Each structure stands twice: as structure tokens, then as C-alpha cells.
Amino acid sequence: MDFQALYKSKLTTAEEAVKLVKSGDWVDYTWCTNHPYVLDQALAKRQNELEDVKVRGGVTMWMPEIAKADDAGEHFAWHSWHCSGIDRKIIGKGMGWFSPMRYSELPRFYRENLDGVDVVMMQCPPMDEHGNFSLSLAPSHLYDMCAKAKHIIVEVNTNMPKVFGLFKTEVNIQDVTYVVEGPNPSIPELGSVPPTDVDRTVANLIVPQIPNGACLQLGIGGMPNTVGALIAESDLKDLGVHTEMYVDAFVDIAKAGKINGKNKAVDYGREVFAFAAGTKKLYDYVNENPNVMGAPVDYTNDVRVIAQLDNFISINNIVDLDLFGQVNAESAGIKHISGTGGQLDFVMGAYLSKGGKSFICLSSSMKGKDGSLKSRIVPTLTNGSICTDPRSTVQYLVTEYGMINLKGLNTWQRAEQIISIAHPQFRDELIKDAEKMGIWRRSNKR
Questions:
Q1: Which positions are annotated as active-site residues?
Q2: Is 2 helix (H, G, I), strand (E, B) or coil?
Q3: CA-CA-CA-CA torsion sign (114, 115, 117, 123)
Q4: 443: confidence class by pLDDT, cuts 50, 70, 90
Q5: Three-state DSSP class for 146?
Q6: Phi, psi angle pair for 257, to nearest 5°
Q7: Which of these, 226, 248, 252, lies nearest to 239 by C-alpha position?
């Protein structure tokens, strides 16, 4: 087959391509870095012609043009699978909603549960000689999304890296309706915040718990990234990577010579991820790098796959937790922040791994809007807060005041251990709360 001829026959302008969208359609903007750019601009220009266009996206890194107009919500409705700060702004505007999920289930949602996918719009790197467009930085659920779609529009961006994949990480020109050659915008960068003293203290408690040959998963945020930086500076060796999100810290660890994947029982030697976002350093590193492989999220986050990787180390941070050991990583009361993502899957998978450990880390306190100090360890989760990790699943909890293991502990032992890593200013009050809830013994140390 002459793939180049087929490509040319499907090449069109963004303005022509978005005419596929009709009022009432479900349109997918895909995920994170792969969201469309010039197609989004063209669709926004059609706003007054359209009503009730429902758009799906997630981990949004820039404000979509379709969401910018004051009356955008009269024409478009945004549905986020996982919220970034941009998604929260769209939701706050009254034209967006969150779709709860365990991220590992998302490909199956497209195969079995969703009403339909009328049009997919996504940025991809240029087509290869075999007619394939790499799903680049976000294989995630995109293959199953495209398999369900009536129409696929690929927006070519030469700045998108070509990422090798295990499976389900390309879409072929034969399945594409239109190709649009975009203006090649640079990929937005997800910078990291400089580590705090608390971040460094927590990281210094975790890193000694990591053995040589471990397989790593790092969540997003200051603490996991600080752990990654310390690993890069450590004497650890023969590490592997199997993660939901690939972040800059992995690049630093790999360039320090710490990663070879030689102890991985599956995907030997490969750093495997579902999606990636970071700085240009990361985008350059993953481009055509045979050591790095993209994969669908129902593979990377599958508890059964994670459990096959010995000495699996999962490191994630959270919003707050209560004295029962219930963890909230996604909301502040009813105010939505992010989503369940893969945290629960990795907490469970790491514990099932031979020698595996799951670390949930947090600062013991935070400053409120009024400048007062507030405890992140609370008697019970705030009314409306989401329990991301049930108390029965949590293993290690870490603050700047210490590390505890909740496995095997009863309710009063849990309360005692959790209070021991709370900020000292709040411990006496937390003890009183535990007493009121019947999870404190008189013999416990105050």
C-alpha cells in the first residue's frame, strides 16, 4: 500500500476537518500533551453554529479555545477524566464536569461503557514509513478510544516525540479520516517546584527503604520528585521503571546510570509508562529511545502486572488522611482537585509484589488562607472528601515526623501511630478526638 498517497488524499485544513463535528456530538480531545491545538482553535470558531457538543479530555495543560468565550458553556460541555488546574478552572466556569474512575479502567470504558465517540482530535508526530502515527506521550487509552470512534482527525506536530510502544500505541493512516498539518507548537512543559525542607526530610526517610534492583513508580508532585532526585544521587543500582506517569525524575535517575531494568520479570530492560509530561529534557529523552516504552494504562496500572515485578516501590502524595487510615488524594471537601488516577492500583499492586512497598507521603501540616497552621491529619475525612485509598489498603505513611506501617494494626494502634507522625501542635487535640471516637486506649502514650 502507498501510505504517502493515502496520507495526501486525507490531508486537509483544520477548518474543513472540524466540519465533521455536529451539535450533540461526543468529541474526544484525548489526553494531556496530545490535546489538539489548531483543531481546537478551528472548532472554537464554529461555536455559534453548535449546541451541546460534549468534549472529553484530561490532565489538561493549556486552556482550550473552546472554553475561553464567556458563553462557551452554551455550546460546549467539558468532561475531564483527571483534573489539572486548567480542568478545575473550566469546571469552575460552570461548563465542565469530572468523570470518576480508577485510571486503569479507562480503556475498558471506551470498549464497553461509553455512549459513543463521534470525533477524535489529537496531536501526533509525523507518520512513519509504515503508515503509523505514534500516540507519543499519551498511549494511555487512546487506541481503544480510536477503535470506537466514527472519525479520527490527526493533527501532525513535528515537535511531538516518537515513542516506541509495547502494544496499542499507534494509529494507522487507514483508520484516519483527516490529517491536518498544524503549526507545530512546542509541547507545554510541566515544571517542578523547588523541594522544601519537608520534602527533603520525607525523601530521606523513604530512599533508605529502597533496595538495589527495585522497580519504581513515582506520582506527580514535589515529594515524589524529591525522592527521585535523591535516588539519582544515591548508590542504588539496577533499578527498573513501571509507572503510570513518566516524569523528569526518571530521566535524572536514568542519566545517573541507575536504571537498566535487568531485574524486571516482565518488559525486561524497559522503562514502561502510560503517559508522560515534564520538561523538554524529558521529551528529548523519550524520543525514539528504545529503552522507554509506552503502553495502555490498563496494562501499566493493572494490579496483576505490578504484582509480577519484585521489589516494586510505589511513591505517591496525598491531600490528607484521617485517624482510621483513610486517604484522600483528590479533593478538599467537595472541592475537586484531581482524581483517583492510579494511586489505589499502585498501592495494592506494590503490596502484592514480592518485597514491594507502597509509600504515601505528605507534609504534616499546611497554611490556611488566613495564614494559620492546619493539620493534614484529621480525625475523620472532611465532609465531602473522597476516600482514594481505603484504610485496608494503606501500607507506609510518611511525614517529616516519621514513617509508620499500618499493616496488621487495629484501630487504636493505627490512631496511635498516625498521631505520632502528626505535627506536634495538633497531637493532643487528635488524641482527644480519638478518645471521642473510641479508638484510643488509656494505656496509650500521650
A1: 244
A2: coil
A3: negative
A4: low
A5: helix
A6: 80, 20
A7: 252
